[in-house]
Amino acid sequence: MTAFSGTGSFLIFAFVGLFGFNFLSASASAKTVNLAINLSALLYFAIPATTLPYCPAHGYMQHYRLGGRH
Known about the structure:
Blueprint: H1 6-19, H2 23-46, H3 48-51, H4 56-65
């Protein structure tokens, strides 16, 4: 595991640099925000109706169904 990778590190640096948090509170806030982002993404993509329009295979099927030509 590298020392600086991922959204958590970015959020820590943003909280320290932009908002003046100390490192401990920035780390705790970053973990909370990262957890909220991950849970919202999980809920969003767990619902098939919201995932289907963004699936490339769905676009290909719609193109074929509507009579699209290359």
